[in-house]
């Protein structure tokens, strides 16, 4: 029993000696964990402080923007109030006769097409630059189909006559040469007809006459197109000039009998004579 007690005492002594060693081993670990936790807390506090500073700067900028917007709104309200006051004063002055009524309107008035009159010079230049432009400026739109129809007709005639002129020119050249492989003139012959020595001279004269005829018609079509262009220019200018011509009922021509005095004659009976007089009122 004594030995058992000894053994228990030895175990207690050894346990007491081992506790400082464990404490010494655990202490550094706890210290390192505490240091890491403190660093994390410090970093979190720093991040929170930076977020708070950024939020404060954003709030300051928002307040500045609000102040700027408020100042702009106040300036606009003041300007509108000043304009309304000026307009009211001008209206009162115009009504009282102190200010001309036209001073109230700064913008140009809307054009009245019922009283509008075209400018002849502008109508002339528009018609010269753009065919039909003078008629559009004079507001005579019903003349446009006539003008452009004339242009299209002249262009078609010029193109068709030029085509026929080329075909008959080639046929005339083929019949005049001695090459048997060039016989384009056969397309102009009627079915069953052919050219031989008995009628060759007659067909030569026919092809020459038709070639000259289509060439003349082609040139005439070109000059007709120039004539349509010139007529459109003249019409635009004359129409603009006559837009202010008086066509009211005051225009009249009267033919009536009258007594004409002849002061050169010394005789009483011959001093006056009867005749007809014309009166033109405009």
In short:
With 282 residues, this protein is mostly helical.
What would the keywords be for this entry?
282 residues; mainly alpha; 5 helices; flat
Give a topology summary:
Blueprint: H1 2-96, H2 120-129, H3 133-137, H4 144-176, H5 200-241, E1 252-261, E2 272-281
Antiparallel strand pairs: 1-2
What is the average of the pLDDT values?
75
Distance between the termini: 165 Å
Q: Structural class of the helices, strands and pairings?
A: mainly alpha
Overall spatial form: flat
Total helical elements: 5
Number of strands: 2
Roughly what fraction of the amino acids lie in strands? 5-15%
Sketch the topology as an H/E string, one letter per element: HHHHHEE
Q: Give, in spatial order, the strands making up the sheet with the most strands.
A: 1-2
Radius of gyration: 56 Å
Helical residue percent?
A: 55-70%
Q: Largest sheet at a glance?
A: 2 strands, antiparallel
Provide the low-confidence segments as ranges. 18-27
Describe it for me?
The chain is mainly α. The protein is built from five helices and two strands; from the N terminus they run H-H-H-H-H-E-E. A two-stranded antiparallel sheet has the order 1-2. The chain is flat and about 165 Å long.
């Amino acid at each position: 029993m004594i030995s058992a007690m000894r053994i228990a005492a030895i175990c207690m002594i050894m346990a007491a000696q081992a506790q400082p060693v464990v404490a010494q081993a655990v202490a550094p670990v706890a210290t390192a964990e505490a240091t890491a936790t403190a660093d994390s807390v410090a970093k979190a506090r720093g991040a929170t402080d930076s977020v708070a500073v950024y939020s404060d700067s954003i709030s300051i900028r928002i307040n500045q923007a609000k102040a700027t917007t408020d100042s702009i709104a106040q300036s606009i309200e003041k300007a509108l109030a000043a304009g309304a006051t000026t307009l009211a004063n001008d209206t009162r002055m115009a009504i009282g006769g102190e200010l001309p009524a036209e001073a109230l309107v700064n913008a140009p008035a809307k054009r009245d097409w019922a009283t509008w009159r075209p400018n002849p010079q502008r109508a002339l230049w528009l018609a010269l630059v753009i065919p039909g432009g003078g008629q559009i400026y004079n507001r005579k739109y019903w003349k446009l189909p006539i003008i452009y129809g004339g242009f299209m007709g002249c262009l078609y005639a010029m193109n068709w006559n030029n085509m026929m002129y080329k075909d008959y020119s080639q046929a005339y050249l083929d019949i005049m040469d001695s090459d048997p492989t060039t016989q384009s003139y056969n397309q102009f012959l009627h079915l069953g007809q052919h050219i031989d020595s008995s009628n060759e001279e007659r067909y030569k004269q026919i092809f020459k006459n038709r070639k000259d005829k289509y060439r003349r018609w082609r040139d005439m079509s070109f000059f007709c197109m120039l004539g349509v262009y010139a007529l459109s220019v003249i019409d635009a200018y004359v129409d603009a000039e006559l837009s202010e011509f008086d066509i009211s009922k005051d225009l009249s021509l009267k033919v009536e009998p009258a007594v004409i005095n002849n002061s050169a004659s010394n005789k009483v009976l011959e001093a006056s004579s009867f005749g007809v007089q014309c009166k033109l009122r405009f």
